[in-house]
Amino acid sequence: MKKTLLGVALLSLPLWAWAKLPVVASFSIVADMTREIGGDRVEVVSLVGPDQDAHVFQPSPADVKRLAGAKVFVVNGLGFEGWMGRLTRSAAFKGTLIETSKGVKPLRAEEHEEEGHGHEGGGVDPHAWQDPVRVQTYIKNIAEGLTKADPEGKAVYQQRAAEYGRKVNELDQWAAKAFAAVPAGQRKVLTSHDAFGYLGKRYGIQLLAPQGVSTDTEASAKAVAALVRQIKKEKVKAIFFENMTDKRLLEQLAREAKVTVGAELYADALSSPKGPASSYLTLFRYNVETILKSFR
Ligand SMILES: [Zn+2]
């Protein structure tokens, strides 16, 4: 019985469903954008999954095989995927490479960059997806790249890209209005990871760097004391940590500086499907709402 139903369901699918464009994306955020724009025409696999760190990713032989079988490889660029060159060579990838950030005006990376957070971009901050205005360029690049690999889908990709671009623009307008309602001097947050430079720049949020504190070294008492002084001096209302391994340090800081510990922000990866940031649109909304809540 089950078998029959399945057979009927499959027969009712349009022909192209049998041969979707095989796409590999480097990490979950550009994978989601590509699914939004590609719709039913594409089958997207993300090498770095939800809640995983693309900075320290090491491609496996299975990943090499996946890429070798793909027609399109979607990456962020700006040196974010330091492992990309080796992978494309190993896979002898000859398909369409979509560098989603191509044409985006990059910001310079902060000097406090953590270890294990190295980028090949030569001092360029790769986290441009945190600015929805720059994401419009990502959308354009993805639509163009998919069209190059699958010209028959052009109208579909253009229409879906336009629709998605409108949603991203609406989100940006909403965030701009909400942040503008907070006095500029109060728009200060402290994050552990230098991934929110683009968000800060777009909405006039001052991001403070935890000097001497990194995710993979134990912070000295001196560094913690200096950080507490900085938080108090700058009147930071909340601190956010992302991929923070040492929760004790976070709690100690919050206690000593008498500030709120904000919920975790989503920087370089989506949440799992059940989490609050399972798509780029929900990730962005979640981060903005979380930061806004800390200002109140
Ligand atoms: Zn990062």
Please characterize this protein's 3D structure.
Helix content is 43%, strand content 13%. By secondary structure, the protein is α/β, with parallel strands linked by helices. Helix 5 packs antiparallel against helix 6, helix 6 runs parallel beside helix 10 and helix 8 crosses helix 9. The model is unreliable at 111-120 and 211-217 (pLDDT under 50). Zinc ion (ZN) is lined by residues 55, 117, 127, 193, 195, 267-268.
What is this structure's SSE topology?
Elements: H1 2-11, E1 21-27, H2 28-38, E2 42-48, H3 61-68, E3 72-75, H4 84-90, E4 96-99, E5 107-108, E6 124-125, H5 132-149, H6 154-180, E7 188-191, H7 197-203, E8 206-208, H8 221-233, E9 238-240, H9 247-257, E10 260-261, H10 280-295
Helix pairs in contact: 2-5, 5-6, 6-10, 8-9
The structure holds zinc ion.
